[in-house]
Specification:
This protein is of the alpha/beta class. A 6-stranded mixed β-sheet has the order 3-2-1-4-6-5, with helices on both faces. Strands 7-8 form a two-stranded antiparallel ribbon.
Length: 228
Amino acid sequence: MNPQEIIKQIAAENSECILFHSGSGKDSIALLHMLHPHFKKIVCVYMYVVKDLSHINKFISYAENKYPNVKFYQVPHYSVYSSVKYGFLGCKTNPKQKQFRLTDITEVVRQNTGVKWVFMGFKQSDSLNRRLMLRGYREEAINDKTSKCYPFTHWKNADVIQYIKENNLIFPEIYGSHQSNGTCIDDAEYLLFLEKNYPADLQKVYADYPAAETILFQHKLNKTVCQK
């Protein structure tokens, strides 16, 4: 069953949905485009690691301007709570910080919006764990128990990129040798991307996670040594 047919099954009984949207990622860009004709209201949940980054805001503005039935709802990424608890990359630490999982955040969003069904861009090709998880659902895509749907279950990354090109959608960010999969503050290629294209965003990363600067410094040092 293709993604459109999976989406139509949920849309047949629901006029609203939630989409966990990564901002600049390919799966989110493509899936939102597929969802928008079928729902009167789409709440896109963007989970930020560092708030208000301009290279992410560009994609959020694009989506809200392109689709009048779309509204973004921004919350801290679940990894932020762990980072605060343990002082990841020098961030402000609170050992008593309560931990939240993706499931917890999903339920809070549901309560605050009153929307039941949640869409995510998980694919069986992403990992063994996701393949095993998705194969246990109806159509290998619909979890009726948790009201979550994964239309891209049978797609691969190449299918998503092809869909984006065919529909002339905004192209996902590319950080160095790989496409965006979120705000990877411990990834040297992501930090290099910000340094070159969005230096103000890089300073926001450093403000929240000061030790991230050492990752970029070490990367440049290693590269210089290897070139000698």
